[in-house]
Protein 1
Amino acid sequence: MYEGDTAKMRKATLGLILALVLAGFMPAQVEARTWASVSAGMSHTAAIASDGSLWAWGFNSFGQLGDGTTANRNSPVRIGTDTNWISVSAGWRHTMAIKRDGSLWAWGWNGLGQLGDGTTTNRHSPTRIGTATNWAFVFASNGGSSLSHTVAIRRDGSLWAWGANISGQLGDGAAPQQRNTPVRIGTANNWESTSAGYTHTVAIRNDGTLWAWGWNGEGQLGDGTSINQNVPIQIGTATNWESVIAGYDHVMATRTDGTLWAWGWNEAGQLGDGTSTNRHNPTQMGGVTSWRTISTAFLHTVAIRTDGTLWAWGRNLEGQLGDGTTTVRFTPVRVGTATNWVSSAVGLHHTMAIREDGSLWAWGYNSMGQLGDGTTTQRNTPVQIRMP
């Protein structure tokens, strides 16, 4: 999935980067390199350092790390020598990234055209997608081996998608037609953020409205039905949605008032409402009004509050909640005592997070080295991942 920063943090980061670019200033290196952002895929992780260099580790059978091999890595390995990467998104078995010049890059598994290069050929190193230089945001879905897709937004606010489309998850109205190159979704130019789930997609426009499309069998679109949609439909009438992220068959979102909302599949308590009951409409999770960022993927969720505390809930059999146990949690449980967490990223069964000092931490399943601590040992509490 994309780095756990939600729309608010992504916009702030992108705005700062663009301002520096337009001003003609972007430092090639800082004195002490730290971690700037991280994204967790199925069983691999990708991250960008503060100097703009790109790193990856974990499962690599399809070249999703981008180091030119198919060998797994249990500690961070640098991808190329460029220092102009500004965002990265790790999906099921592929990875997408954007450089400072607005160019889009992809690598890994491509059996469904999810890389967007017009082929279905796997790529073992970053490959440029098209010639456009105005890409602002990209999200690689954690959809399974037959369902993977990618969504992205350009700087002009247009929305694009490609890859698998069996349930209408691309939103172009042409399900189940697969797309091997980016196709524009509708004509709107006010898309602000988007997120790709297993077979569904959600997005927010700059007017604060929420939209969804794709498979809806578990109520993950949030329109009160279980009917699939192959074009974007507005969810409710609220105009204060701030961030949204799609999980396996569920969705988590925040509003500008700091409230947390959830809907869709809830078998492992991933919605956090204290039950295992599916929700077909956005449902507020508790009465807390200080939620800042949210990240989710398969069956667990991790979030950060405005006080810098970290919380988690859902499946925990692999220690992915980080609370020192393997007990499933149906309501948010605080992880540790630190109050300086700024972002998080959730993979299939592992979690990554960054603190204010730029340090990177990981926990959960680690059989493919996806935590990056140099081992394949499962961790039930956060362990620091050192910068090479």
Protein 2
Amino acid sequence: MGERFDVVVVGAGITGAATAYHLMGEGAARVLLVERAGAASGGTGKSAAICRQHYSTPLMARLALESIDMMAEMEADEPGAFWQSGYMMLVPGDLKDKADANLAMQRSAGVDTRWLSEAEIAHQAPWLDADGVAGVVYEARDGYADPVRVTERFIAKFRAAGGTYRAQTPCRGLIRDGDAVTGVMLESGPVSAGTVVNAAGPWARFLAETAGIAMPLRAVREQDSIWQARSGRPLPVVSISNAVDAIYLRPMGDGRFLIGQGFPKDYQDVDPYNYRETADDQFINLILERAARRFPPLDGMKLISAYAALYDVTPDWYPFIGPRSGLGGYVDACGGSGHGFKIGPAIGRELAKRIVSGEASGDFAGLSHDRIAAGKLFEGAYGGNRG
């Protein structure tokens, strides 16, 4: 076989880029990161990139917290990619008790989270119609990011540390020898590797299948929209998960907002190589109506653009991360299910440690695909990808 690397990472989204970077820090000598197009050109680049720590398992809360810490550290060195503007979750009455339990768990994991009082809601959210809102969760250290810039910074740090990055380099398949993956097939020819990391996002299932590896992964179409609000009105400055009306929102600066539809909703399974990338009229009308009702200052906002991206979704909405029993040389790093960006930096660090040392922390090991056969799926408190 031609070239030889210690680790080949396939896919330069946030998880692949962060994993490649941290592998260098863990002492991997030769690491290759390949991407069929450009950095963050798949699901990462179109992520809403809302950064929150509000999850219903200690593992996900910890990963989100650590990822925010990493992005904040990067932002201090080079501004312009991460904004700690705060986060609010609007909670309906039927989820109030579950949210209360989540807050207690999150605080024990180190997350700075709390309920806002009625006076605080009136002061901090004058743009909110609180009818039907049973409570507002607030996390001051959360916010939003530019997903492309964050990913590019991980890649730049990876290259500065001596890693090899090749964009416009499709991976045509995995090379398998018995019970081990031994490399990848690029258009330029075979490349051997001690470990191959499948971070191909919605395309990870197809890559795995080239080596006969089962991957219960769906590619679902996720729509988002960007709007321009009218000037001279009080507008949200925080990222928002609106569980009352099933929409989410984050500022983009200059009175612009990214707004999408949250769970519960119908998910449309698609072929990631051939799907409609423009948004549906029904989706645009739904966003306009729900956003204007809940946030009255957004009434009359102007549509700038609307598009469809992809989620790579596992059966329990938690990612597949780590090696598999009985299969050497292969590591999963896919299935973000809408969480991928906000936990990607910490996933990369934990996974790099596991690849180099061969060991994983107890809770992180639970993300392995092995949980499917063991019947140890995760269960979020709110359903779907709300965590």
Protein 3
Amino acid sequence: MSQDERLLQWTQEVSTHMGHMSRPQAVVLALWSYGMVMTRCCGLTTVAGFLCLLHGKKFETVRQRLREWCYDGQDKRGKQRQTVQVQSCFAPLLRWILKRWTSAIPRLAIALDATHLRQDFIVLAVCVVYNQSSLPVAWVIVRSEQKGSWKVHWETLLATLQAVIPAEWQVLVLADSGLYAKWLYDDIVAYGWHPYLRLSGQGYFRPLAGQCWRSLRAACRQGGSVRRWQAVCFKTQSAQLPCTLLAWWDSQHDDPWLIVTDIPPQQAQVAWYGLRAYIEVGFKYTKRGGWHWEQTKMKDPLRAERLWFVMAVATLYLLSLDATASLLAFPALPPSLSLFRRGWLYNLVLHLLGQPIPHRSFLPHPWPDDLPFILQP
């Protein structure tokens, strides 16, 4: 299979899953994401250089075509140029992933977090956790100096995705203590999902049937077993949260895991919170561990959001190859290689051998088993 055939195949796949986009938008998205995958770089000049060599076109022509994909419509050349509305792409992107999701148990772990780029941007991202990694499916980028609450951003991102996930799926929404808020917990429950939100350890809780308030940090002891409580967290009336409180304090860490969820104590697994850490792996892919976004010269957050969409599609391309590789009887690669790097190597070998990609899929690992626990009254 030639490079042109591969690109045509990828363009068709992108166009199929991004059917709401205009044909020119989908074609450029396929071109840019394909160029990113082949060069392992999101830099405009590098990707344009690769594509101009591949197709024998003028460098400046290719470069301008890619650049304008990130522009607002009024800033583009021509009278019928349209703005790429990134928010309208989040639901199709998640639907694309779920269509390829192969799991005996219908469940999904979603992580929320913020990542910084120098003093320029803060990215608020919603990512699907996948095999010690993550795939971005919704985000908003704000300037680092921008003041104000992030509440409206998180609510909008979650609402955009809610209709895509089948109602019968078990969905965990994981976030670290920096994002905990009662409204976030309530919003997640209202969607039929399950919050797994970490508390900072400041404040108090009491058993649901009790009257005595205790320090949250006293919910477990360092080096002890997992404890599970039916509890009310926080004394202040407006902040009180009836919930399941999971508490575990590893002997090697200074602070405990204090997780609030709506899953009953007998069913909730504190080890599931460990899935949240894999959003950090996904953030690494956007920067030095993958696409090298840390080198961007962009200053406009809306343009950066569109570039992030290209990176998200390119990440989907690579991470979907790990399950596909098993169909091709490739030798097993060591787990020390990241999922991103394995996908890139599989893609490189397939190109050198001239072989097609038979099927893109996601085969999630089982969620981690729980630690020994004590069920508290």
Protein 4
Amino acid sequence: MLDIPLNIGTLVAIHKQELDPIMEDLRKNGFVTIGPRYQDDGIVYREIEGLKDLPRGVASDQAPGTYRVHQSGKDRYFDFIPGNHSWKQFLFPPRKNLFSVEKGEREQKGRFDYFAIENTEPIPHFAFIGVRACELAAIGIQDQVFMRSDFYDPVYKSRRENLFIIAVNCLDPDSTCFCASMGTGPRVESGFDLCITELDNTFLVEIGSELGRSLISARTHSLPSAYMQAEAEKAISAAARSITRALNTEDLPGILADNLDSDHWIEIGKRCLSCASCTLVCPTCFCWDALEKPYLTGKLTHRERAWDSCFNPSYSYVFGGNTRPNIHSRYRQWLTHKLGTWKDQFGTLGCVGCGRCITWCPASIDITEEAAVIRREAGK
């Protein structure tokens, strides 16, 4: 048997069944293993235990306003493109109790005492199974939002610091994907503990961290042959070539900023429902609101953070009126922030080309087409 030195960057081959004990080892070390499941005619991210929970032999077909899954006839676990779920929901929860305020039992001099109660829920340690390159890029963008040098969000930071990632190279992009033009896929480059490329009977696994190395060292593994590596490279290259939808990002922030009065915004507003679906499925959007949730007894109130959206009319309401009172102004805010001013804030665009906003828009509005119209009107 070959003595294989395992280092960060080492590529090994494992039988697919070895993923089960890897996930078992993660759970023994306190991780909650989260991965894709086939549920309600779609792919969702839920807690999983092993290969039996993965959507084996399932592929997906996406188009503007359309998402379908079907049996592929192949014995593979990662042939699908994710549905409306993103990993954001675990690091930046849709609803999170921040603290509570309890009313005292006794009235003193006409006033009650109130006591603040800190939320002491244990910090979950997640292991994400099957993270695509575009999704890794989205996590990196949210890192910039929630873990800035001058401010960090304690909920996000505590979950992110304890995160284990098994990434997967995307081999079957759908028609709404445009990650290649955004430089975010389909090949996984960095930011993972382990990265899988799935062949018919084998997982090729690249080691990305010391924890990943320790998990692989405990499992049966071998060096991949030249044929295996060539097949993996051929599949990744073919996936990149199959992506035909694209977004031209050259000077895009400047073009959008110079064309805020374009009539095309009004045309989009006639189609847009302002339903906020695009922001909810987007893996990078981060708008939120703080809400009070009082008990009917009047003795306890929770302070809760909840996802919000710039498409929500009340989101842009300030004293005296609404700064974005119509749909076209709210769509313009979303698109010009995502593809423009986001770069001024965080040094990168806020889009990773996953295509979720196109697939899950009930009006079939395509962000790549709308940006292209603005560019053409600007003569660029």
